[in-house]
Structures are given as C-alpha cells and as structure tokens.
C-alpha cells in the first residue's frame, strides 16, 4: 500500500501509523522483552533486594525440580483450552444458525445470549460462585431436592467442568455474533439452489453455510484458543487455581504474587505459556487459512 503514496502523502501515512505503533511497542514489545529478561534473573519484586542474573536456573527449576507442577499446569491448560474452543464454537454455530430463522422473540434471545459479553470478569465469577455456593446456593438447593450434594467449585470432579462452563457462557455471545455476521453474507441464491436440489437443512448447512463462513470460523477458533490458553482472571475468582484448575496463567500468577513472590520463576512460566500459545496459534492459523483457500 505504501507504494501508492509519494512524498508528503507517504509522510502523512507514516505519521498516522505512529501512535498505534508506539502503543504496540510500549505495551506489547517492551513488556515481552522485559519478561524474557526477568526469566533469567532472581527478581522478586521486593524493594531493596538485589537482582542477580541466574541464567537458565529458573528454567531448570521449572522443568526439572518443579516438573510435576509445570506438567500438571500444562495438562490443565490444554484440557481447559481444547474443551472451551470446541464446545464454544459448536454451540455458537448452532445458535447463529438458529438466529437466522424467523420466529417470535428472536431479538430477545439474541440479546440474552450476548448479554454476558457486556459483564466484567469479576461480576461473572462472583455471580456463578454465588449460584454454585455449596452452602445454600440455588444449585445446591436444587440438587438437595434430588437428595444430592456437591462442593461444586471446591470439588476435584466438578471444578474444571464448571469453570469451562462459565468461560463458555461468558464468551458465547461474541462468538455467536461473529458466526451470525458471516452467515448473513452468504448469498441467498445458494440457499435457493440447495432447496431446488432437495437438500435437507443439515445438508444445506454442511454444504453451503459452513464452507461459506470459513473466515468467521478462523477468527472464532483462533480467539477462543488463544483466549482460553491465557485465561487466569476468571479461574482466579472461581477456584484460585485449586481442584485441578491450575492453568499456566494461574500457576504464573500464584508464583508471582503468593508465597515466595518469585517473579523470575513466574516470568519463566509465562515464557512457557507464550511458546505454547504461539505454536498453537501458528498451527491453527496455517491450517484454517489453508482451509479458507480450499473452500474459497
């Protein structure tokens, strides 16, 4: 694009890009480089304590001395991320397809699905924590009617599934809107042709709708995968990383701000999280882009 501009126009183009570039450098590049540097030190964040370069000592501690904790955290992260990405996109696709139909109350249903996207993480977390409070919460009372009981977010069995459920509930509306926007761009002539060929609703969705919203699928899968790989705030509110919900984000947070406050080790865990996220995002993007080209 820059080749289309000459002289003064090119200067104005670069000046227009400068504010965004500065924001990216200040809040993206510099913190990332600082994290990599801190991971090679014994920085604790406590004023007055010396900061020493320790090389790869933190990496040795993470992968060798504390390997059980790190591997368990990676396992929890992958379980959480895969479950959220698959289920959230499947439900959003179904809802978006439903919202393309005409029926009474459609606008209300759309608003209800999107409503959680307007709420903050703390509000969402505290609301569901109250609902699943084992001591008198609505879920506990309902379960008691059937003679059952559960610790919910305090249960090794149910904590992770419930955290996954809340994460999906919080982000389902945005994912649905993206899919719905993609479906609204599908030419009506294709549906008419499918109808004339006698295609069923499922066959029309599989052969017409789904291939035509490949770009929306790419966006939603990438956002869900990357977002869930880096989630820690909602988990912090709901379980504090306990009961098999200790994702890499929570592991890093607790290492940095609880106990010994080892920011050097926390930065190392963050680098591990970055590498995993980068590899997953790059792999998904390559696969999904290729799929777009084939379907396009």
What does this protein structure show overall?
- The model has no long low-confidence stretch (mean pLDDT 90).
- Helix 3 (67-99) crosses helix 12 (248-257), helix 7 runs antiparallel to helix 10 (214-229) and helix 12 (248-257) runs antiparallel to helix 13 (263-295).
- The chain contains 13 helices and no strands.
- The chain is an all-alpha fold.
- It is globular and about 75 Å long.
- The protein has one domain (66-295): MetI-like fold (Orthogonal Bundle), CATH 1.10.3720.
Approximately what portion of the residues adopt beta-strand conformation?
Answer: under 5%
Largest sheet: none
CATH architecture: Orthogonal Bundle
Report helical residue fraction.
over 70%
Number of helices: 13
> CATH homologous superfamily?
MetI-like
Secondary-structure element series? HHHHHHHHHHHHH
Q: What is the number of strand segments? A: 0
State Rg.
24 Å
Low-confidence stretches: none
Could you tell me the CATH topology label: MetI-like fold
Overall CATH class: Mainly Alpha
Overall morphology: globular
Could you tell me how far the N terminus lies from the C terminus, measured between alpha carbons in angstroms?
Answer: 24 Å
Mean pLDDT, all residues: 90
Oligomer: single chain
Structural class: mainly alpha
């Amino acid at each position: 694009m820059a080749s289309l501009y000459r002289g003064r126009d090119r200067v104005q183009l670069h000046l227009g890009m400068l504010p965004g570039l500065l924001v990216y450098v200040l809040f993206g590049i510099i913190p990332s480089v600082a994290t990599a540097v801190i991971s090679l030190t014994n920085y604790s964040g406590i004023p007055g304590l010396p900061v020493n370069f320790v090389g790869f000592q933190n990496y040795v501690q993470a992968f060798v001395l504390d390997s059980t904790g790190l591997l368990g955290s990676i396992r929890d992260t992958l379980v959480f991320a895969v479950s959220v990405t698959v289920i959230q996109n499947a439900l959003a696709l179904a809802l978006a397809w439903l919202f393309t139909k005409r029926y009474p109350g459609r606008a209300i249903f759309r608003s209800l699905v999107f409503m959680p996207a307007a709420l903050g993480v703390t509000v969402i977390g505290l609301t569901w924590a109250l609902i699943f409070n084992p001591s008198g919460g609505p879920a506990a009372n309902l379960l008691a009617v059937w003679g059952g009981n559960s610790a919910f977010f305090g249960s090794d069995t149910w904590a992770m599934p419930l955290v996954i459920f809340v994460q999906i509930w919080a982000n389902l509306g945005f994912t649905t809107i993206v899919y719905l926007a993609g479906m609204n761009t599908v030419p009506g002539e294709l549906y008419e042709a499918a109808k004339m060929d006698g295609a069923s609703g499922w066959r029309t969705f599989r052969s017409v709708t789904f291939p035509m919203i490949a770009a929306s699928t790419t966006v939603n899968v990438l956002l869900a995968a990357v977002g869930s790989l880096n989630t820690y705030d909602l988990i912090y509110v709901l379980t504090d990383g306990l009961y098999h919900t200790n994702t890499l984000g929570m592991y890093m947070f607790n290492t940095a701000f609880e106990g010994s406050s080892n920011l050097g080790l926390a930065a190392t865990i963050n680098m591990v999280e970055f590498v995993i996220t980068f590899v997953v995002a790059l792999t998904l993007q390559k696969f999904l882009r290729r799929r777009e080209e084939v379907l396009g």
